[in-house]
Amino acid sequence: MSIISNFVLKENNGVQFYTIPAFSETGLVKHGFSTRIGGISGEPFNTLNMGFLTDDDWETVKENRRLFAQSLGIPLENIVAANQVHGDKIFKAGTSDRGRGAIEQNTAVKETDALITNEPGVALIAFYADCVPIMFLDPVLKAIAIAHAGWKGTVLNITRKTVEKMGEAYGCQPQNILVAICPSIGPCHYEVDTPVISQFQNNFNKWEKILKLKPGGKAQLNLWEANRLQLLDSGILDRHITVSEICTYCHPEILYSYRYENGKTGRLAGIIMLTN
Ligand SMILES: [Zn+2]
Fold first, then answer.
1. CATH number at residue 143
2. 1 confidence band (pLDDT: 50, 70, 90)
3. Is residue 96 in some structural domain?
4. String of b and e for 98-115 (b: at least 16 CB within 10 Å)?
5. H/E element holding 203?
6. Residues around ligand 1, an ion, CB closer than 5 A
């Protein structure tokens, strides 16, 4: 089946991945967001599991990462990965960091949920199964970033902080930065309860735009809109934001969803690398 989206689904050597048209048009990056199609993992991780922090076999995940990177034309040894902890730390990666966390977990950048670089050939990767992946590209000053924004990272404003960090580190102006909100759990399937609801009510003055309260103390949370509003507050232009609008829970045939599979599932990955 085909999913209607602002992203484009591509296939290379059997590996299926999404790309962001606004990013492709710049000609400055290689990038993609993985699906579960085209790897070698068995159930319940079938087949393109990107995550070492699952019960899947390490050699299998390593091969899957190689297959995905290869499908994007990116060498596996150029990848930089972080050990994600639902925090708000941002790491500035450079050429000397290449390979960290690429084929093992213990060399990954410690306790970090966003990576930035302005160096060509440094491939930033992050992992997801429902949490919101955000990719950034400043085509003017040639800088990129990737962030991992679950509900905790969203409350900590990791998306806004990543925009600010690109400014501090490289002089990026928000009005030039292109941003994409990749496949993740949608407002259709993200039910939360009181502790999460109160975090959003206390930290977002526009919380009515992202929480739909329901009887029984529950609410549907829209993390896509929460992060989009943070981007607009950061000075990112509305027309520079692409939201995939693909819900992982709605599409278990092509994507991993932690909630849909009750935690027994693989990980998706986003990768972005400046080519020059
Ligand atoms: Zn859904």
1. 3.60.140.10
2. low
3. yes
4. bbbbbbeeeebbeebbbb
5. helix 194-203
6. 186, 188-189, 247, 249-250
